[in-house]
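Sanity check. The docking grid for magnesium ion depends on where the pocket ends up, so I'm generating a full predicted complex first rather than guessing from homology. Inputs follow.
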Amino acid sequence: MDKELKILVDSEKLIARIKELADEINGYYEKNYGLNEELTIVCVLKGAVMFFAELSKYLNMPTCMEFVSLSSYGAGEKSSGKVSALNLSLPPLENKNVLVVEDIMDTGLTLKFLLDFMKTKCKAKDVKLAVMCDKKCARKYDISPDFYAIDVDDKFIVGFGLDYNENYRNIPYIGYFE
Ligand code: XMP
Ligand code: MG
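Predicted complex below; grid placement will be based on this.
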């Protein structure tokens, strides 16, 4: 990419916002289930890896961590329009509370697929979606996150797990190219 990488949300602000989001999430589960009920947090690899690691540090209830691997983007900046399940093996989740943790909701295709899977195949009790970035303007499916850290407009972003052709995931802030 011969454009310059600019900062959209710096590391300090992003981490502070993720802490706030964890408080919101703690509040929801405490109010509805108390803080002793186990929560299964599901990381959607690879993009959610950093957000998942950061967010999970501040959750107060007992948690189990699970990892699934899905892909809807081919190489580059456009969604392929279909979801490939690279790894969807999960323990039994019947009657469990599940929080799916994803890097970004864009068209909504990936999380619509996963939400349907968690509800109908896994028969989880309560499935909620937490995303780091909500790109509302790109939405094509009728879905929205239950919890999100930041709003982004229609630009392609990288960093804090998000990639461009598998690069830039390790950058500690959210950036864009200009
Ligand atoms: P959908 O369209 O299914 O897309 O909501 C979700 C997946 O697409 C990827 N995605 C991005 N990746 N910068 C990225 O690095 C972006 O701006 C972007 N928008 C979407 C991401 O993997 C997400 O899981
Ligand atoms: Mg992703």
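Relevant for the grid: Residues 44, 47, 102-103 surround magnesium ion (ligand 2) (CB under 6 Å).
Also worth noting: The two ends are 10 Å apart (CA to CA).
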